[in-house]
Amino acid sequence: MSISPRPPIPSLIPESAPFTPEQRSWLNGLFAGLFGLTENITPVSTEDAAKLLASLTPGAAVPAMAPTEADEAAPWHDPAMPMPDRMKLAEGKPLSRRMMAAMAQQDCGQCGYNCKDYADALFVKSEARLNLCVPGGKETSRMLKQLYTELDGGPAASGPAPLPEAKPAPVSLPGRSRGSPVYATFLSRRRLNKPGSGKETWHIDIDLAGTGLDYVAGDSLGIFPANDLGLVDAVLVELRMPPDFPIGDRSLREELTDGVSLSPAPDMLFELISYLTGGERRQKAKQLAAGDDPDGDAASLDVLAALHKFPGLRPDPEAFIEALDPLQPRVYSIASSFRSNPGLLSLTVDAVRYEIDKRTRLGVCSTFLGGHIEPGDKMRVYIQKAQHFALPDDPSKPIIMIGPGTGIAPFRAFLQDRQATGAPGRNWLFFGHQRRDYDFFYEDELTAMRASGLLTRLTLAWSRDADEKTYVQHRMREVGRDLWAWLNDGAHIYVCGDATRMAKDVENTLIEVVAKHGGCTFGEATQFVAELKAKGRYQADVY
Q1: 405-427, pLDDT tens digit by residue?
Q2: Dihedral sign computed on CA atoms, order 166, 172, 175, 180
Q3: Higher local confidence (pLDDT), 257 or 61
Q4: Fold adopted by 399-542
């Protein structure tokens, strides 16, 4: 059945609002869907819509009302949007929503909440830790610290801030949250890139026997990693501290290994350093603690680099540990189907390694999985349930999956799941990477799925095989007519991968495809994609 373009979208964003024409068109399309210009939502008056939209304009009054579902889909809930832009759009909103805008907006679950619930917990002071947002890092924790002062009588938004409804703490079953991890067994790793690749990507297998865990396609696995032991030893040498110094019921070395983060250097560490130094060094440490960058190297300072920058420190070991952030779990999309192999869980992981100042820096969990842990070793894990990333309830629905690089992980799980259940729906995968000869992950599996008919279409993009780079969004434009036909047939579309560029580029390309092949305006196409999201037919798993 063909999907007809909607009537022209009314202009709901005031011309005086501080947006570009493209942003205004995007917002008009978004809010047109939210304010009733869809077939499934009760319409509201344009006057009421304009009142709420006015709250996005800096300095506008905020209606004294609790956040609504429309508020939750506000434009700042976009992981590709820079922090300053998110905070500007959230100006004048209730404090809990501005806290939410400060977060990385990925709902990744690494903090133990989604972004909204973490913001609400901070607002009602049931959660005091401001440094739990792993993707947001220092930027988020600094903004939350600034906003948190408003809870004690600092500057507040105009209008009353609604108190989020207190929710009872859910019962945490073993292995079902970061607060109750279980021990699983590391089975094996195998390199997915062929020799000659510029990347280091691993397929990881984990044994779930004895954990009591299950999962569904779309879920993620949380892992509590350990720091590289060479880095731990280098920190101990720099501090000239005994590794067996007692910290509670653990040793200093144990705390540095899996208790605290060694990258990046937190503001609290620079505050501690300022107490231990004097003169120009103290001033510099205070500047770093305040978020300034006196020497232009703040972004590259991990704990060891900070100690190198201020040599000769002899802090109290307990004070030193207290000044560091806790080592947070990392969350990875699961790359296997429980229905296909109940005792096994697989991941697809890029090992992060890079050079700064002639020292190799390591991604904590990626290199833990890619080399530090050995087959047979135990590790603490938990299942992070997907909130809005799952196969259609109707197995006959076609699906379109867009996952370059390690973004292929959940789609391997989707395909295995559809195969195990005999789902009749068609499956189309877009995959891309740098070079076909070296970076075609799961080539044999995908080729077999294509031959069997499970994988209806496989569209590939290689960015380094020609002078002109080709990405998945370029392939989407090339096959735009077919994409539109699949959408008309009720296809669900999924995107997994980088939030800051790829996911936004894919969404913009999809809007272009809808406008071109659906015969509608850019604003109408934007509204159509917003409707896909509202109906759960456009879902993203981004990081």
Answers
A1: 999 999 999 999 999 999 999 99
A2: positive
A3: 257
A4: Rossmann fold (3.40.50)
Q: Which of 488, 484, 447, 440 is nearest to 462 (CA)?
A: 440
Using the CB atoms, write b or e for 419-452: b if 16+ within 10 Å. Answer: beeebebbbbbbbbbbbeebbbbbeeebeebeee
Locate 429 and state its tokens. 């995968």
User: Confidence class of residue 31 from pLDDT cuts 50, 70 and 90?
Assistant: low
Letter string b/e over residues 86-103, b meaning 16 or more CB atoms within 10 A of that residue's CB:
bbebbbbbbbbbbbbbbb
What stretch of H or E contains 541? strand 538-542
Alpha carbon distance 532, 487 (integer Å): 10
Range with the lowest mean pLDDT among 10-14, 357-361, 506-510?
A: 10-14
Model confidence pLDDT, tens digit, residues 54-86: 444 333 333 333 344 444 556 667 777 888 888
Q: pTM score, two decimals?
A: 0.81
Question: What are the residue ranges spanned by the domains of the chain?
Answer: 21-152, 182-225+329-384, 229-322, 399-542
**Which tokens hold the place of 8?**
């022209």
Buried b (16+ CB within 10 A) or exposed e, 219-243: bbbbbbbbbbeebbebbbebbebee
CB contact set of 439 (below 8 Å; sequence gap of 6+): 192, 193, 194, 197, 199, 201, 433, 462
CATH number of the 229-322 domain:
1.20.990.10
Pick the CATH number of 182-225+329-384 from 2.40.30.10, 2.60.260.20, 1.20.120.610, 1.20.120.790: 2.40.30.10
Q: Do β-strands 344-350 and 246-247 pair in parallel, antiparallel, or remain unpaired?
A: unpaired
pLDDT in tens, 275-330: 999 999 999 999 999 999 999 999 999 999 999 999 999 999 999 999 999 999 99
Contact 517, 481 (CB under 8 A): yes
Please check the confidence at residue 483 and state whether its pLDDT lies above 90: yes
Greatest Cα pair distance, the chain, in angstroms, is 74
The separation between CA 71 and the C-alpha centre of its own chain, rounded to angstroms, equals: 20
Average pLDDT over all residues of the chain = 86
Nearby residues of 172 by Cβ (< 8 Å), 6 or more positions away: 179, 180
* 431, β-bridge pairs: 460
Tokens of 270: 């620079």
The 10 Å Cβ neighbour count of residue 67 is 17
89, 75 contact by CB (below 8 A): yes
> For residue 93, what are its two tokens?
């909103």
pLDDT band for position 331 (cuts 50, 70, 90): very high
Cis peptide before 264 (omega within 30 of 0): yes
Sign of the CA dihedral with 515 first, then 521, 522, and 523 last: negative
User: Nearest 5 degrees, angle CA 111-CA 117-CA 123?
Assistant: 105
